[in-house]
Amino acid sequence: LYLPEHVFTHGQLYVTFSRAQSLHKIKVLVKDGNIPGIQGVFT
Predict the structure, then answer these.
(1) Which domain of life is it from (predicted)?
(2) Please, are residues 37 and 9 in contact by the beta-carbon 8 Å criterion?
(3) Minimal CA–CA distance to 2: which of 13, 10, 18?
(4) Per residue in 1-43, pLDDT tens?
(5) Are the beta carbons of 42 and 34 closer than 8 angstroms?
(6) Left, alpha or beta for 37 (phi > 0: left; psi -120 to 50: alpha)?
(7) pLDDT value for 42
(8) DSSP letters along 1-43, please?
């Protein structure tokens, strides 16, 4: 799973994970945990 932009809603991420045949096959790349112009912690 490559997300170059932040996820619009939690539902989008849920659907992506639910379509995987096995959770052991999912790999997530978090390139940058910051959103320009917004301070805070994002997961």
Answers:
(1) Eukaryota
(2) no
(3) 13
(4) 666 666 667 777 788 788 888 878 787 776 666 667 777 665 5
(5) yes
(6) left
(7) 57
(8) -B-SS--S-HHHHHHHHHT-S-GGG---B-S---BTTB-S---
